[in-house]
Amino acid sequence: MNKITAISPVYNVEKYLRKAVESLIEQTVENLEIILVDDGSTDNSGEICDALSLEFADIQVIHQPNSGAAIARNTGIKASNGKYLYFMDPDDWMEPTMLENMFIEAEINSAELVITGFTNEYFINDEHFEIKNLSKNSKYLNQNEFRENAYKYFNNTYMAVPWNKLYLSKYIKEHNLEFPNVGWDDLHFNMEVIKDISRVCITDDTGYHFLRSRPGSETTKVFDNSLFHKRREQFIHILGIYNYWGNA
């Protein structure tokens, strides 16, 4: 069995894709399976995926009609063989030891979920700057302990996104968890992941580089009214989790 399956939904990211995938190839962890799901790209992203799979034997490419990132990630889950699942955005990149560090943390603590910090990358005109987002190293090795401390991770991007997390594949598949085809699907997915989880590790590594300022990226539309409504959905979902925990 592969140690980790890294899944990336790919759609019209020809400018960034090779850098992202090469940062996966350069990971120091052994037995890494990489699944690229080309979600009906209309640029050269699909061809780049195929070319990369010819260069690197560990890459599997799946082409599908455009269905959105959520469905693409679900396609990757179904095709995965790794003990752990990891989801990467195709316009970001990571440091070589990131996945190995997360894998070691998961193995030592029998964790169902490992959450790490990350580095926000801003490229605005000719300026470049970084902002690190991290929390201190923490281990929650029973359900009550995690639930009592989960609030610490809801006030930033920590809990919402999938690319700073390593998931135990058995846990995901036994709970029949999938990304819903809705706005902020990753937040909804992660809320379902933590509903019944018991063993969670937080690390202060910031080896994931999140490209925040790509033109057209949702994360750059700070004043977009639709994002306000998505944030509202987010808080409603968080309240639902706490109601579930309160009645458990």
UniProtKB/TrEMBL annotation:
Query: InterPro entries, per this entry?
Result: Glyco_trans_2-like, Nucleotide-diphossugar_trans
Q: Which Pfam families match?
A: Glycos_transf_2 (PF00535)
Any one GO MF annotation of this record = glycosyltransferase activity
Look up and give the organism this protein is from.
Answer: Companilactobacillus versmoldensis DSM 14857 = KCTC 3814
Gene3D superfamilies per record: Spore Coat Polysaccharide Biosynthesis Protein SpsA, Chain A (3.90.550.10)
* Record flagged with keyword Zinc-finger: no
Alphabetical UniProt keywords: Glycosyltransferase, Transferase
Name of protein: Family 2 glycosyl transferase
Is RNA-binding among this UniProt entry's keywords? no
In this protein, which residues make up the domain named Glycosyltransferase 2-like?
6-174
